[in-house]
Amino acid sequence: MEKETPENSNLQESRLGLGLAAIGRPEYINIREHPDEDKAESSYRHRAISLLEFAYQKGVRDFDTAASYGKGEQFLKDWYHQKRYSDVRLSSKWGYTYKANWEIGYKGPHEVKEHSLDKLLEQWSNAAELLPGLKTYQIHSATFESGILKNNEVFDELDRIKRTTGIQIGVSVSGDNQKDVISAAAKIKVGGKDLFDSFQVTYNILDTSTHRVLHGLLKKGKTIIVKEALANGRLLRNKNYPRYEPLYQILDEIASAYGVGTDAIALRFVMDHLKPSLVLSGAATKLQLDSNLKALNIQLSPKEIASLKKFHIETEAYWLERKQLNWN
Q: For the whole model, what pTM was predicted?
């Protein structure tokens, strides 16, 4: 495929940040390339801090973690307290507790959800140690079922945190009803003002179901953070997903034209199609992050975006497939 030059050369309308979901714990829902890596906590801490510093030196300023990302929040805290960079934008999430305790092959649920006021108070006390670098604090995977969207006690406490610290209050969502949860959360007000300033959502070539609602929030000045832009690795060529072979071929053609990896094309699709505030790389190594960052140096043409848009699948099918991924 011949590379086309887009009319608009504003290459960095969306920022690229680093999410710590895969580097704060020894197992995660992903398709990994390094099953034999040293999984000791001390090794993970060393790699995480090294990767954070590498990312910063490469120009990354946005870093996202959560209380349930194993030791991810602590690793970020250790790095931040050591370096004290004044220009970073850190974000974390509350509402899940990490239960695997670094046990490889843990049989129970690795994370347990609890959207209670007590859990917020407990986990905020740890996240607050990331101030003043902490810029956004989010409810982790809000759902209708957890009751969080009707919990006025939590809303009042989140509003208090916002007023006393000046940080953004956000909500992250997952699942096949993401757009409905986002729409409901966007209507929540405390003291006549919107509670949520930021929305973190899964969005990628395979699932663009939230496009309209997110576009509307962007027009209102809200912060939109995209996670899982590579669909937990499913957008990288994999023999276990032969049904995506036509997509892999198109990604290969476009990547070849720009001289980058298919990961950069998948990330750039999100940047150019949705234009969110921030897209999170889920890189676990310096090599992966360096490849991801090449998305900042290209811009897809409307024709290329259209060729990728047609590969979206039904939302229910996307999330059913995701649920079948193993922790490894």
A: 0.93
The 3-state DSSP class for residue 130 equals helix
Per residue in 165-197, pLDDT tens? 999 999 999 999 999 999 999 999 999 999 999
Alpha carbon 240 to its chain's center? 24
SS3 content of the chain, % helix, strand, coil (to 5): 40, 15, 40
- CA-to-CA separations, 117 to 65, 173, 188, in angstroms, rounded: 20, 19, 17
Q: Are 144 and 184 in contact (CB under 8 A)?
A: yes
DSSP β-ladder status, 15-19 and 62-64? parallel
Look up the domain containing 251 and give its range. Answer: 15-323
CATH of the domain at 216: 3.20.20.100
Distance of CA 175 to the CA centre of its chain: 14
Q: Are 94 and 73 in contact (CB under 8 A)?
A: no
Residues written for the chain: 328
Evaluate whether residue 2 is within a structural domain: no
Question: What's the total number of domains in the chain?
Answer: 1
Residue 3 lies in a domain: no
Question: What is the per-residue DSSP string for 219-273?
Answer: HTT-EEEEE-TTGGGTTS--TT-GGGHHHHHHHHHHHHHHTS-HHHHHHHHHHHH
